[in-house]
Every structure is written in structure tokens, then in C-alpha cells.
Amino acid sequence: MAQEPKTGRGQGKLFVVATPIGNLGDISVRALEVLGEVALVACEDTRETQKLLAYYGIRKLLVPLHAHNEREASERVLKHLRAGDDVALVTDAGTPVVSDPGAWLVARAHEEGVRVVPLPGPSSVLAAVSASGFPGVPLLFLGFLPRKGTARRQKLAELARWSHTACLFEAPTRLARTLAELAQACGEDRPACVAREMTKLHEEVVRAPLGVLARRFAEGARGEVVIVLGPCQGQEAASPWREAVARVLALSEAEALAPRKLARLLGAALGVSASEVYAELMRAQGRKG
């Protein structure tokens, strides 16, 4: 492995290492070199990481760093880094920090002047988006939806307004409910893709309208799941300032403000030209009429 320069204060380096999302053959040569040379590996689940290391004949000290002990475990790792030990941060599968623990450790490492070295590799988000055939930019990634309540309804409404590609994770036991609610919020014709068990033996990538997917997976599915929502067909891109115009319009009518004056005030507040706001006001009034 090519030697990296030490930091000015003699700390070790923190390597953020992407690991396979299923197929162990997807790990990079560089990742194996780093895992073989670091002093210890901070990992989400020691059992999962041990399987990977054992497969490649690597023996290392493993430090569990998960959602329930992230800050305490990070301090232990930082002690090793301060002492000059190189450390690798991994997650059970894919790229650390993306809907997984590790952000606290990486942030603290930066604060202390530790060099953070990313080792790119497998990512279920990018794998699913690339296999979906939907445009990758702009891309909204939400991780897991809130389980219930207002927070969940707000996220579903956000996805309904977002007219570009969006991506989220889901557990197999909750897939049927989530697809049904997405179909209700975004419309049954909204194109989408369900990618599950990626890179594994029973890998499945299914692209279809949300209504079709909701019926197909009505009984749920096995394995980890990524849902990719395609762009709304024939719809205008979501725009927060247009939503603000619609909300303010009712108030302006109560105050009897002239549309052009209101457009100037809104444009200045929102950083949008008064002519654009005025045109949207006229469209909104027309829709109400």
C-alpha cells in the first residue's frame, strides 16, 4: 500500500472504508490493503465484519461502534488515533455514515486534526439508482422514512412534491405498507423501482408504476430493500417559493393587497423576480377560480 504522509501532530489516519453490500468479491484491492495494515477496525457489528475479514484471512482488533454507543466508542478510537495508530471505519455493508453510524467519529477526527481518508466502493444507493434507469441528478436521498405520525406524512408529502429522482431504504417487513402509502401520496402511475438483495443470489430489480409495485409486493419481500422513485411525468418541478406564493395568496386577499405590490414584497423576501412571482399569483388565482 502506498505510504500516506503523517499529520503534523503525529496522529494516525482514519480510513473510511466501503465494504460489500452482499457479494464479498466487490471489495476493492485498496480496501483489503488498508484493512490488513490498520491497527484496529471500528465496525457496526463485529460479527458481520469478522465474516468479511475471515474470508480474506485478515485478523484485526475490532471495536464495536454502533448507534447505541457511538460517542463512547468514538472516544476510544480517538485515543488510538492520538497515539499514532491508523484506524479503519466500516459498516455492516456499503459506505459508512450513509444511514449508518460513524458521523460523530469522523467529525471529531476532523476537529482534532486527524487526517480522514475515504476509500470509495460499494453503495446500495448508487447501485439501485444506476440500475433503475432514472436520472441520477438531481437526486433526493431520504434514508429510512419515519415509522409513523406527522413526520412520516410530511416525508410522503415531500416525495409527492419532489419531481426528480428520489431514493429511500426500507425494511422487508414494511415494504408493502410503504409502497401502498407512496402510491397514495405520489399517484399510482408514478414510476418507481424496487431493488432488493442487490449483489446476492436472489437479487431482484423491478421497475414499474407504484401501483403495480404495491400490488406485486403486497405480501412483503425478503432481504434489504432500496426504493427509487422516478421523476413525475409531465409535472412542473417542485419549487418551495411557488408553494409559499400559494400559501400567502389567501392571506393577501384578506388584507386586500394589490397583486403587483404583493409580488414585489414576496420577490424581495424570497429572492425571486417580482415578475415571476406575479405570474405565479395569476396562475394561482386562476386555479382557485
Structural summary, described in words:
The protein has a five-stranded parallel sheet with strand order 3-2-4-1-5, sandwiched between helices. The chain has a five-stranded mixed sheet with strand order 6-7-10-8-9. The chain is 43% helix and 17% strand. With 289 residues, it is α/β, with parallel strands linked by helices. It has three domains: 110 residues, Cobalt-precorrin-4 Transmethylase, domain 1; 105 residues, 2-Layer Sandwich (Methyltransferase, Cobalt-precorrin-4 Transmethylase, Domain 2); 49 residues. The chain is built from eleven helices and ten strands. The N terminus is likely disordered. The longest helix has 16 residues. The chain is globular. Helix 3 runs parallel beside helix 4, helix 6 crosses helix 7 and helix 7 packs antiparallel against helix 8. Strand 6, helix 6 and strand 7 form a beta-alpha-beta unit.
